[in-house]
Sequence to fold (153 residues):
Amino acid sequence: MIYFITFVYALISLEGKSASVLLHDANSQFIIYLPFTHIPFLLGFYNPIYIWVEFLPLFILYAFFFVLLSYVFGVFTQERLFTHRGYHYLRVFYLANFTLPVIMLFLTELLSEASFDAWGIVGLHLLLGIFIFFMAAIFKQGLKLQDEQDLIF
Fold:
């Protein structure tokens, strides 16, 4: 929810040119302050391509990432560990980690210059995707064994 709320606040602040945004004309940078304060909250370049391709989509993607992550953690809190729903959540999570960061990186590279940090973050998401892929494979085998055991009893 925090990422989604941050997305909405940044969108309203940038599009509404509210009092919470300070533009630095010399550097084409912006500062979004925390509501009702002068404490800097978000910093970025005041460039429409940067704002709509790099800055704002990251908040939505990370909101989506944490929703999927909560589903994955929910898999481990169920009474029955190996379920079709749990396997489905793991599969969606690793597919999202394999595809979405790479798509965002290529889109960013096409429209602007991605920083070195972006490559590292994408690498971390790919490693996380590989780990969850193996976990999903284990879950698939556990689900198969559990279904066979349910047929016996």
About this structure: The chain has a mean pLDDT of 87. The chain is about 70% helix and 10% strand. The radius of gyration is 20 Å. Strands lie at 21-24, 29-33, 40-45.
